[in-house]
Amino acid sequence: MKFTPIRASLISVAIAASFAVAIPANADETCNSPYTASLIKGQEDYVHVWTLGVKGMGDESDKLVTVDVNPASKDYGKVISSVTVGGRGEAHHTGFSDDRKYLWAGRLDDNKIFIFDIGTNPAKPKLVQTIADFTQKTGYVGPHTFYALPGRMMVQALSNDKDHGGRTGLVVYNNKGEFVEKYDMPTGKHGDVMADGYGYDIGINPQKNALLTSSFTGWNNYMMDFGKMVKDADAMKHFGNTMVMWDLKSMKPQKVMHVAGAPLEIRWSLKEGDNWAYTATALTSKLVLVKQDDKGEWQAKEVGTVGDPSKVPLPVDISITADAKGLWVNTFLDGTTRYFDISDPEAPKQVYQKVIGSHVNMVSQSWDGKRVYYTTSLLGNWDKKGADDEQFLKLFHWDGKALTEKFSLDFYKLKLGRAHHMKFSAKTVQAAALSDKPQMSLAQNR
Amino acid sequence: MISRRCCSKMPGNPCRALALALAALFAACSEVPATPAQAPAEMSAIAVPLGLPPMPYPAGNVPTAERVELGRKLFFDRRLSFNGTMSCGMCHVPDHGFTSNELRMSIGNEGATVRRNAPTVLNVGYHTSLFHDGRDRELETQAWGPFLANNEMANPSMGHVIDKLRSLPDYGGMFERAFGGRGPSADTVGQAIASYERSLVSGNSRFDRFRYGGDAGALSAQEQRGFAVFSGKGRCATCHLVGDTSALFSDFRFYNTGIGWVRGLPPSTVHVQLTPDYSTELTEKEILPISETVPNDVGRFEITLDPDDRWAYKTPTLRNVALTAPYMHDGSLSTLEEVVEFYDKGGAGAPEQSPLIVPLALSAEEKADLVSFLKTLNGEHETHVREGLQQSSYVSTGSHRY
Hints:
A: Methylamine Dehydrogenase, Chain H; 4-stranded antiparallel β-sheet; B: mainly alpha; Cytochrome Bc1 Complex, Chain D, domain 2; 17 helices; 4 strands; 33% helix
């Protein structure tokens, strides 16, 4: 599909509108697009868990599981809804539409995108639309990150339909679920860096007109048995080693930065005026700071280490606190969550760690940082096997010094499957005016 | 003992002589010896480039242009896997030498493990048996193996695939036009894919021009020295045959090189290259919790149950070998240099290893010459790559839309 002026202008209009009207959108519980319209102030009522079906378990299908997490509810800590979408397609990540009424959920294997109505009754999400032609429209495979733009949804893919490798791109839909445009990730020499064309996450800083992307690997690797892949020297050559800073308004790559070892989740500082973001590299276990230098040029530099890199603990999800002073970092293989003091983003210091389970992937915290949720599944064929294959959703309370477990839901015992991505919702969503929370002027994607 | 190691089970092919004769006939008269109802509308003589013999095909499946075109569409159609993610072309990638350069061993439906490396399908029409273990001898039937294998395309039945084809409007009339009125069936699907695969010829390499084209300058002095090693001290040509008028670089027999046996003996530590500049060592104990039970692989034995065939695999063609890394049936060697080192040391040293594989005592220069020669075997097949890539993406094929 060629880039057409009409489609380009549509996107430009949408993004320009975001600068004119919604700068910056109200932040959410530290992990949504800055264009997400509403903010849960205080206690969330529900956690929605995008869950992978498991062969031989229950209906064997992927499903959106809703858990009541309000301690005042009689159903606190219980599953109150489960919406099966049919089949297994490597359920992975989700993202709210800008109005927070709809949740888009993707599958990395069969490339289907499911849109759930969350706004009408968040206790009972309803599947209202399925996009089944993502690959046919784009040539990309693996719709991964769902990132709201004004009236739009931006999707970062992981792979392609020519060789199932890592070259891929970004896709923009409108809120009706109609394809608008696609953008190939850059390849070739950019400055001194060879762009690999890979993708993973999206993070936008509207004030800086900055769209930052990271890079993982293609279908060949993310669908392969983890142990098999580690032993495959040729497969291991195909992980992303770059991050790309895009000009958001023009959607053109501005700078390609060398960040070795599969930089994954992107978390912008939420403090107004800040010009930096964090990522963690999965293979090399590094914390990387992306920040403007004195000349305003974006630079990526390693600022810390997570665990013992020689043991490949595999940093996965990260979650930044609303005040940008703390960062949770999960390492999958040792099942550990770590808390870093990032008051000085140039010098993160680990101040706490706790083993959450035999393995752990996602971490999501409430806006006030007092409640921290964890799930286990990374990828269907990467999760640990045998007795180590725990699958749960756990809630902990964080008092600034230690995590205290409040409940644990065993997703295998409940015949649900592998618990992956989490999103919060509330019975009554209150919009927060920018003037109420100026420090909330930015947020990032998850 | 030799017969135990060198399986020597060159599959006899009674149709082959006939097919060759038919090929010659068609090349001469370009007519279709079929009933009017079955007569294809257009003949496609498979033009054979320098260095290759005539392309054989069975009398009942003349590779017409329409069958080749239909076969290409089928070969790259991801919809024909159970969950719509896999096609033949996802493992046999056109610009990866019609194999996959990114994986040692393929993966299939839902990431399921396939035990072996995807072989190139360039020149596959010449193979006397198919798959690394030779379990099928006809391209017409071979295609159904991956269609139905749980760890490949995972379709529940032939009928499921055929029903799907009948429901896809963009196939409307293609089968009927290619097969004289016959629609999608187990036979016509196999015949169309076989026709496309037979069309994937690749020859006229620099070696071909040197050896068969009378162009003495087509190979450098080093490459010519490498050919001498290949044919002499290196003993490569014992199994990778080079004829007087053409060369397929394979005898299509089955040998135990020791690679398969060694694979059953996992090392206690694994070197893991995490980035180009950073690696680590992980123990088998550390990898075990993230590993499935590795399926065993006994090679040709699984087909014949003959103990002499344990860990024996088919001799691969070396045409385009520089394009088809990684190497060996399990992709365990990443470069041609590693392959040459492997054979120079006399293979893996397995107790049941073929006696043909012995230490060679090649000098460093001879090994470099040999690698240099192997890189001259890249043939001309740009059209196949271009057409394959065009067909492989939904975006570039409007007819692939749902």
